[in-house]
Amino acid sequence: MTQTSPHENPKIAFSPPGQPVMGRLNRLGLWTLYMKEVRRFFKVQLQTIWAPAITTLLFLVIFTIAMGRGDREILGVNFATFVAPGLIVMGMMQNAFANASFSLLGGKIQGTIIDYLMPPLSNFEMLVGLVGAAMTRAILVGLAVGLAMMLYPGVDLSMAHPWAVVWFGLMGAMMLSFLGVLTSIWAEKFDHNAAVTNFVVAPLALLSGTFYVIDNLAPFFQSVSRLNPFFYVISGFRFGFLGQSDIGDTNMAVLHGALGLGVLNVVLGLFTYFVLRSGWKLRS
What we know:
The protein is 68% helix and 1% strand. It has ten helices and two strands. Strand 1 and strand 2 form a beta hairpin. It has one domain. The radius of gyration is 23 Å and the shape is elongated. A two-stranded antiparallel sheet has the order 1-2. The protein has helices spanning 27-42, 45-67, 79-110, 114-117, 123-150, 162-186, 190-206, 219-225, 229-242, 251-278; strands spanning 73-74, 77-78. It is mainly alpha-helical.
């Protein structure tokens, strides 16, 4: 008979049958949800990634032809170089919203919402998975748009402050991802989703200084523009490329805008989490 060494523990502890083994964070479940959302948009990448790149490039072509003639310069660069960063981050934000606003809404309409509610995922893990996938799509769209614009003559995408490109790009994508999840919770049909896109997201994006500097506006409209969080995302992202911005006269003003966006995302994230945890329009 084989004897057990006194230094060996003959008892090996196993979890009871049927009891899931996971820590405080369900990493496998979170990764599974994230990959599900990523694969959903990646299966139709021609529509979700490359089509926005072509559409944004058309914006650049049209506005450059219409407004960039005569070697027009803004902030010391030609018009195409000035407008390109704003178009890149605008495409990122719009696609982050489009991805996040479809997930739960599609589940409610198709009757598959149970696939989100039944798995052993906390509300925090679900929110991280949905927002993470939306931000991934935003980053891929940003890379595709940037690649397309590098091929356009006259556009210089050299980065003066890479940290600003990364920070403002991620903060803009995160802000629209949270807004998309809130829309997906509230909406009961695709018309509701389209209403937020057409009457909230699109106007805020187009009136945020993408195609102009707000110094050209009347003082009242400058004040209104500074209340628009999209303005800080686009101007800060542009600052990362050009080294100049209409947020303020100093780099400290850009830093304040960066911190303000971070605080806004924390507040918006907490609000989205508590709405998701309440089960409003999801479990009723």
